[in-house]
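Example record

One chain of 244 residues, shown exactly as stored in the release files.
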Amino acid sequence: MVLAAGLGTRMQPLTAKTPKALLTVTGRTLLDYALDRICEAGIGRAVVNAHWHAEQIAARLRARAAREPGRLDMALQTEPDLLDTGGAVRQALATGALPSDSPFLVVNGDSLWLDGPIPAIARLANGFDGARHDALLLVARTATVIGQVGDGDFAIDEPGRLRRPREHEIVPYVFAGVQMLSPRLFDDAPPTPFSMNVLWDRALASGRIAALVHDGPWFHLSRPADIADTERAIRDPLFGPSNT
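Predicted structure tokens for this chain:
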């Protein structure tokens, strides 16, 4: 699933008439970057949710399907009222758009990354253990992120246990917008709308959430200036044009 329903308020004025997922970096929309990664991972179906200017998301999916017929089966989940991240995934499970009997991938529609030696989605799929995990998150080191990330989202303590920051603590990892989830995570989920953070915190308390540290560049696109910074970083020979 690709989450593309947000209002993108911090990206104003660029998002006044355009969904954030349809903003472009090096001439390609963020939504297309996400769908490309999904295709490259060998996943054959994706559901995309939409709210803000949902008709533009729908048009983009139609254009992509016409240009690349048969490459990816795409379904649109239109949300007249925002369901938030957790509520959106729960809705897709309830309608059968996502599988109720096996793990699935969720990608933020504004998440942009370059892969390391092994693609990030393959690392998540290989690392997910349904006996131990309800959620496996991709995280990035805040020190290496292109863009502003604040005080971080998580720490990873020995022996690899994920936790939230303590009071006044600056932590070294930020959620990178990509996660493998078990449908089990949504058992007894609260009524919509609700954030994925609610379910993450519950999984943290039970020890059923883990993280993989991304081993390539990750870009935090929060403000309009971040787009130009990201484009400069992607074009830098350090990263190489073949990785874009």
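Notes: Residues 142 and 172 are 5 Å apart (CA to CA).
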